[in-house]
Amino acid sequence: MAPHRLEALAHLLRQGLALEGESGIRPLEAMVAVARTIEESVVDLAGFERTDSGLRFALHNPPLRGGAFSAVRVGVDGAPPSSDGLRIATGVVPVGIDARTISRDRPLHLRPGEAIRFEVDRPGPSRGPRTVRLELVSVAIPPLVWLEFTAVPHPPREPR
Q1: Are residues 36 and 112 in the same domain?
Q2: Fewer CB within 10 Å, N- or C-terminus of the chain?
Q3: ∠ CA(36), CA(85), CA(50), 5° rounding?
Q4: Is there a single domain that holds both residue 113 and residue 140?
Q5: What is the mean pLDDT of the chain?
Q6: pTM score
Q7: For residue 24, is it within any domain?
Q8: CA distance 90 to 69
Q9: Facing residues of 70 across strands?
């Protein structure tokens, strides 16, 4: 596990224990429920699926806000996020664009409420949950917007 992830988990655990000590377990349960609700409202878990070469997933709309992004990276199961083997499609760009072509000079523009779809070549186990970390590097502030989720991907869809 990456050191920054361990540090973040340790911080979260310390905060949770402090809150539990001050107020009991109910606030912790409420925080978990809020986090799950936010995750489910952003990530289209029904569309999270395995592909022949990796994974496919979508967001209902950009996490946090629309804007211009100079880089998009995905890491799977703890691997460092990368733009390699990542294709992105939006309502404006329905064909998957290669994430390696995104730059400060050619940013990816996302509009509020616009769905965005990702396909990433990251082979892995054929069963069980997968953890996906999506990083979007904004041309504005804050420079890094990220989202992480863990779910069991659906099997590949049958060709029609």
Answers
A1: no
A2: C
A3: 50
A4: yes
A5: 79
A6: 0.71
A7: yes
A8: 13
A9: none
Question: Which residues lie below 8 Å from residue 95, measured CB to CB, with a gap of 6+?
Answer: 89
Assign 3-state DSSP to the chain and report helix, strand, coil percentages, each to 5: 30, 30, 40
Shared domain check, 59 and 129: yes
Q: Are 15 and 8 in contact (CB under 8 A)?
A: no
Tens-place pLDDT, residues 90-145: 876 667 899 999 999 999 988 777 778 999 999 888 889 999 999 999 888 778 88
**Whole-angstrom Cα Rg for the chain:** 17
Buried b (16+ CB within 10 A) or exposed e, 31-48: eeeeeeeebeebbeeebb
| CA pair distance 119, 12, nearest whole angstrom | 30
Q: Provide φ and ψ at 157, rounded to 5°.
A: -70, 145
**Backbone angles phi and psi of 156, in degrees to 5:** -55, 145
Which residue shows structure tokens 């994430």? 99
Smallest CA-to-CA distance from 136 within 83, 93, 95, 97 is with 83
| Residues 54 and 37 grouped into a single domain | no
Q: What is the DSSP string of 65-123?
A: --EEEEEEEEEETTPPPBSTTEEEEESS--SPEEGGG--SSSPEEE-TT--EEEEE---
What are 44's two structure tokens?
Answer: 């289209």
